[in-house]
Structures are given as C-alpha cells and as structure tokens.
Amino acid sequence: MAAAAPREVRIRARSRGVGDAHPGDQVSDSVDPVSAVQPIPSVRGRGRQLLLDAARQTFAQRGFKGTSTRDIAERAGVTEVMIFRHFGSKANLFQEAVVAPFATFMDEYIADYRSREHGKLSPEQEGRSLYTGLFQVLRSEREVLLALMAARQYDDLPDAASAQVNDAFDQVLALLEEVVATEAQERQFSGFDLPATVRVMFSMVLSAALHGDWIGLDRHVSHVSHEQMLDAMTQLTVRGLQVPED
C-alpha cells in the first residue's frame, strides 16, 4: 500500500505553530488572510509635511503654550522625536508651520496688488476690488491666522515669530495706507484720519474673513452673505452713511 501523502499544515496566528506540526507534515509559511496584520501606512518621506499640517491645526485649536510636541506628533501619526529631528524645537515648528506661511501669503498679496494696473475704475470698483482681494487671501489662510491669534492672545510668542508677524501686518497696513492716500489725492477726498481709517477698513475685512460664523454670515438666520458684507464695506468706505442734513 502506498504511503499517504503528507498533510499540509497552515500556520495560523492563534493555532498551531511550526513546532506543533505532526511528523511527516509539510509546513507552509503562508498565513491565513483573516489573521494577517494589516501594514501601517508608511510615513517615510512625508513626516515633515505631516508635522506641519498637524501643528497648524493644533496650534489653531490650543494656542502655542497649550500645544505640546506630543499632541502634534500624535495628530501627525509619527513619533515625537521626529519633531526635534526636523525642526529642533516647538518654537521652530511654530515658526515654519504658522508664521512663515502667513508672511509669505501677505508678501504675495502685496506683490500681486502692485503688479496690477489701478486708477481706471470708479471709487466703488476700486474699493470692492481691494476688499475682495484682501478677503480672499485672509479667508484662504484662516487656519494659520487663527493659530496666530490664539498664540498672541493667550501666550507669549517667541521673539522671532512675534517680530515676523508684526512686520507682515505692518506691510499690509502700509500698503492700504498707500492705496487710500493715492485714491484720496486723485479723487480729492479729504477730511479723514488716514491711519485710523485704514485700520478700520482692515478690521472689517479681517473680521469677516475669520469670524464669519460668529456674525452669522452665509447662514439662513441672518440672510447675509460674504458678498453683501463686502458690498457694505465698500459703500461705507467710499460713500459713508448718507445722513440727511438738519
């Protein structure tokens, strides 16, 4: 009688191992798909960007002091040591994740505005164009700005970061002063405080870009859209409130 063919034994994670096979068995090293451990997605080559994204989100929620490097690493799905390997410190990570992007997009907005031709539109069109451009760039970087606001409101920012933020805001305010002063001269506007007026203008558009949810924009309750807000800003800036004379 011919010898029976040896049985094939599969190794299962929770059953017999190689040492449990019967004599004469052929051992297969294949693993049952059900018991196979799914590999964790690799972050190789993406760790730095994952940390930047996670840092921006966490700083926006908790501020600078309220955020730990462990919080950021957990959100990014990497080890905490990677923060120090890539950035050296939490302060440097904040600088790269929040401050540098803010300064960059402000520089780009200023360069874009100055590259365009001006002076051929009506005061309303010029004002609307200015507000729209500023609103769009502030709105697109809302997360970064909220992180900056949280850090400045409740924490002590690192000196280098604070100086860079101040410089970026100063450049934007200087641009607005330049624009309004030029428009006032060309169109013979007078009788207003230029620095104060510019800061009122910037405050309006900054508030609409960052806190639209607080003031009910684009909600059915208020029936007020961002477009209506920008129109109203333009009207107030160019024409003011038309109060009847006594």
What does this structure look like?
The chain has 246 residues and is mainly alpha-helical. It has a domain at 95-237: Tetracycline Repressor, domain 2 (Orthogonal Bundle). It has helices at 47-62, 69-76, 81-86, 90-115, 123-140, 142-154, 159-187, 194-210, 226-238; strands at residues 8-11, 26-31. A two-stranded parallel sheet has the order 1-2. Helix 1 packs across helix 2 (69-76) and helix 4 (90-115) runs parallel beside helix 7. The longest helix is centred in the C-terminal third of the chain and has 29 residues, at 159-187. It starts with 7 loop residues before the first strand and ends in an 8-residue tail after the last helix.
Annotation keywords:
mainly alpha; disordered N terminus; 246 residues; Tetracycline Repressor, domain 2; two-stranded parallel sheet; single chain; elongated
SSE order and pairing:
Elements: E1 8-11, E2 26-31, H1 47-62, H2 69-76, H3 81-86, H4 90-115, H5 123-140, H6 142-154, H7 159-187, H8 194-210, H9 226-238
Parallel strand pairs: 1-2
CATH architecture of the domain at 95-237: Orthogonal Bundle
Largest sheet: 2 strands, parallel
CATH class of the domain at 95-237: Mainly Alpha
Q: What is the count of β-strands?
A: 2
> Portion of residues in helices?
55-70%
Q: Radius of gyration, Cα only, in angstroms?
A: 30 Å
Give the CATH H-level superfamily of the domain at 95-237: Tetracycline Repressor, domain 2
